[in-house]
């Protein structure tokens, strides 16, 4: 498995600056709002999204350099992602995120919703200050997609008739749209051709879909300490993901648990064991690998440099998180 530290060593300065700037960017006048926003950024994530932006910036600029607008886009992307997480936690009534108590668990649901709204507003302000209308348009679409995705997900909770096609569409709105649009926005800031912009959008879309599929597998296969949140959260909240959709084809007993809306923790444990004893997880990983390979082909065909290799290694890292 690729070592994350070695993989990101060429952009460690940029990642460090991003972490510093994020705290400054979420500054709020009201102490509770600031505390809530700061708490969201306290536990450092893997920063996969900004890292992808940095690598794409390096392969799309003549001097292979990350400029200030690329760096600001990476920061905006991370703030939007963080804002979506706090709203997700409220909707799913999740107590933990990255091993820490969620904002609504520490403060209140009202404060958590306001903190998420505040972060979306801050990201929009910094986005406007990039002074690039095309970038504003494409990143603004992400926030619209998030809202539509949450509504769609709510409408199909505990629905055993969901298809893989439905799931992929939901996953696009939930995760892939941010990565896809960020990749395209990076190409726009690098003044790439429309063709290259579209290629990188597709790259990001496939990476984003694979990322979500792997996340959904981990919800079944990992424990709370590894995930930083309770295992089986998707089942509890009625989010039927790739592993369970594939498992349903093999073991009809799962329908009973879904119809009972995974009534107890014991039901969730039993359902997880059933899923593990089917080919559901393997088929879900195969689906993620398919999207990873599609993404890699786009990069291989379009670019050829050292940073391309790092981008491909990042893609493979996303897939191998389940190993």
UniProtKB/TrEMBL annotation:
<dbReference type="GO" id="GO:0046872">
    <property type="term" value="F:metal ion binding"/>
</dbReference>
<dbReference type="GO" id="GO:0004659">
    <property type="term" value="F:prenyltransferase activity"/>
</dbReference>
<dbReference type="GO" id="GO:0008299">
    <property type="term" value="P:isoprenoid biosynthetic process"/>
</dbReference>
<dbReference type="InterPro" id="IPR033749">
    <property type="entry name" value="Polyprenyl_synt_CS"/>
</dbReference>
<keyword id="KW-0460">Magnesium</keyword>
<keyword id="KW-0150">Chloroplast</keyword>
<keyword id="KW-0934">Plastid</keyword>
<dbReference type="Pfam" id="PF00348">
    <property type="entry name" value="polyprenyl_synt"/>
</dbReference>
<keyword id="KW-0808">Transferase</keyword>
<dbReference type="InterPro" id="IPR008949">
    <property type="entry name" value="Isoprenoid_synthase_dom_sf"/>
</dbReference>
<keyword id="KW-0414">Isoprene biosynthesis</keyword>
<dbReference type="InterPro" id="IPR000092">
    <property type="entry name" value="Polyprenyl_synt"/>
</dbReference>
<keyword id="KW-0479">Metal-binding</keyword>
<dbReference type="GO" id="GO:1901663">
    <property type="term" value="P:quinone biosynthetic process"/>
</dbReference>
<comment type="similarity">
    <text>Belongs to the FPP/GGPP synthase family.</text>
</comment>
<protein>
    <submittedName>
        <fullName>Prenyl transferase</fullName>
    </submittedName>
</protein>
